[in-house]
Hints:
The protein is an alpha/beta fold. It is built from 19 helices and 15 strands. The protein has a six-stranded parallel sheet with strand order 3-2-1-11-12-7, sandwiched between helices. A hairpin with a 2-residue loop joins strand 13 and strand 14 (296-297). Helix 2 (54-62) crosses helix 3 (67-84). It starts with a strand and ends with a helix. The protein binds 5'-O-[(L-methionyl)-sulphamoyl]adenosine. Residues 10-13, 21-22, 24-25, 50, 229-230, 232, 258-259, 261-262, 290-291, 297-298, 300 line the site of 5'-O-[(L-methionyl)-sulphamoyl]adenosine.
Amino acid sequence: MKEKFYITTPIYYPSNKMTLGNAYTTIVCDAIARFNRKQGKDVMYLTGTDEHGQKISMSAEKAGKSEKEYLDEMVEDTKSLWKLLDISYDKFIRTTDDYHEKAVQKIFTQLYQKGYIYKGSYKGWYCTPCESFWTESQLVDGKCPDCGREVKFQEEEAYFFKLSEFADKILKLYEEHPEFLQPKSRINEMVNNFIKPGLTDLCVSRTSVKWGVPVEFDPKHTIYVWIDALPNYITALGWGSDDESNFKKFWPADVHVIGKEIVRFHAIVWPAILMALGLELPKCVFGHGWLMFGGDKLSKSKKTDQKECIDPRILAPRYSSDAIRYFLYREIPFGYDGNYSTEAFLTRFNSDLSNNFGNLVSRTFSMVKKYFDSVIPESYELSDDDKALKEYVLNETKEVFKHMEKYDLTKATTSIFNIFTEANTYIQKAQPWAVAKTGDEKRLKTILRCLLETIRIGGELFEPFAPNSSRKVLDALGIEKGEFKNLDNFDGLESGRELRSLDILFPRLDVQAELETLSSLCE
Length: 523
Ligand code: MSP
């Protein structure tokens, strides 16, 4: 039986104003999902939308629409963005889906029956955009510590989840399974900022919010958005429904990938809920950093003065989704904050995609065309330089797998590009054009074969990250879609097969001209 792999993004607040920052988590998960599929695993990649809460009602009202009308539009918009970015999700959950609402009610009722939820009254500072309650001491200058906006003092009858009872269990979880929360620094953040100061019970219902899932046994209460949202990871698999086969197959999740600002919900609240329900915990919660723009997060609830183009709907059609995806994997050190700038993106497009990868492929293909009518040549005795290239490629390939074990997309893409760089250096040294003049056909064939093998292996490795351009190269080489093949074999191509012709993969850009065009397009 195939090994399973279950990966999730957070469910998104539906919006038609998604920036590259918002899309980052989904883009990241996509490469991990595709990589695992190519490893032959049975992958479930889940994403979706988080559709309840006061903020949604307010946005719908502002747009002059019913919640349902408003949400349907936003969801279509979100899905079309994922399509544009070649996101290969297997399931899209909406928290307004009937099966989800029913399962959430069931979870709430079970927690109540088990004594983990009780009725009380809530007094606190509420931030509507963040859907979060804060205590006086958590406020920063009297404002929401997450988004810096105004908060309102509220008091109401509410149900509470006994989160305080789970502090020791969560600490033990981090101690016994340090791999549960990554990167490591996130553990300290959770322990020092939330667990050590003391976990308080969590308010998990509201009577003032109408747009939410009603508590089954007390319907004037709606379930707090996070208690509605977090269980999507199991309800999407059919937990609590008549068909739990996917739940049995895929749970526990291999990794929940999320941005750092929502780690506390995933690494404290979610495991506590699962422990209370008696369910297995996810194997890993990975809290990535933020994509920063001029020193600020491209935030969901705070407006920044955005001068550069961060709209994926403009960038993707113009430069390809592969280019955007690659840039984010490579440039933002995975797990940490990283700066985005249009200039850095355009510069890397030229240096890495156009010069390094694109040029390697087009030079090699044109030489095979010129000297051998595009027929893949066989190889003869390898020289020391050929052997060194082979060794290098096979070693870096192993590195890519090691990095992907740790979800380190930045190091994985760096290793892939090391392969391309090495091959370009090899061309300069091997000088196939000079060999052609000597008439040493065997040597010429061997050099070109070594280059084609490097491109094949590099192309296979690059496919999860840049699926379109890599696929074009692999198709041209005659490599079928599907699992990684012959990555430890430097002789994996079929000799005598004709190379299909390829257009230029990443035409070089005029950076200054692009910067000007983009600033007018993105105003
Ligand atoms: N609805 C909640 C998640 C509930 S999961 C049970 C939510 N949604 S969100 O739409 O605000 O965020 C979705 C993802 O986008 C999060 O992982 C968030 O960290 C990510 N990002 C939004 N802006 C970002 C950056 N500027 N940089 C990187 N990722 C950021 O939170």
